[in-house]
Amino acid sequence: MSQPKRHHFIPVMLLKHFTDSAGRLYCCKKDAAENKIFTTTPGNALLERNLYTQFDATGVPDTHVETELSKIESATAPVIDRIVNCALDGRCLQLPAQDKQDLVRFIFCQCRRMPENRGMIEKRVIQLLAEVPDAFERYVGRPTTPEERAQIESPEYKKKALRDGFLTFTSVPLSDDTLQMVGQGSIRCGVIQIASKSFVVGMWSNLGEWLPIHQRVAIRLGGPNQYDLGNMIASIGVKDTRRINEEIVRNSNTFAGRSERLVQSLAKTC
Known about the structure:
The protein is an alpha+beta fold. Helix 2 packs across helix 3 and helix 3 packs across helix 7. It contains 9 helices and 11 strands. The protein starts with 5 loop residues before the first strand and ends with a helix. A hairpin with a 7-residue loop joins strand 2 and strand 3. 45% of the residues lie in helices and 16% in strands. The strands form 4 sheets. It has a 4-stranded mixed sheet. It has a 3-stranded antiparallel sheet with strand order 3-2-11, with helices on one face.
């Protein structure tokens, strides 16, 4: 059985909520020298080859991280669809406890899995790699040999350490205690009321900020005393929509949306 190689860092089940009426996405790749803005479909957008693949010493691939991410997406997709449908109809939605836990798990996972996190992780991995020779000597009780030090300092060793660090950061599960604690808070839902305005989708890392799950719908984690999506839908105005979009664009290497005009406008702020 072939293993998946095209790994979406924003899942297709989310991207489908940001397309235009023809099912297209307008994408902007900020570091592209040419064709910075292009048109594509959810199946071909915001992905990277073998992003979540781990390779052993012989180069054999292991895609268990991608498999676990797919399970989280599958559990959350129907929950997000229900939230979007209810929000656009102006109806509140009471989520069962399990659905709420699945949604919280997805929110935390989406925050961690983005390739933009590699820069932050690289800094920490480089610090740890500098400590490896001394740690090795303390562990084995002897100095490292020139061959061992050369291996530790080799580009291949560093490359593997960076990949392993990113995959570890991506795949660390939320504990049951954390899920229960966060689940006691609220999950707020907001809708852009002006139909001509919309969100883009891209890097999202602020757990206290709105997370767009549809071109006009966003959710956010809140405290236990804040309004929940079961009893209130917030109205997101033009200024907040622009602010949310600009933060996504600022943090993203690639972002996408339903409107070519919007993507072009936001690309000018890069």
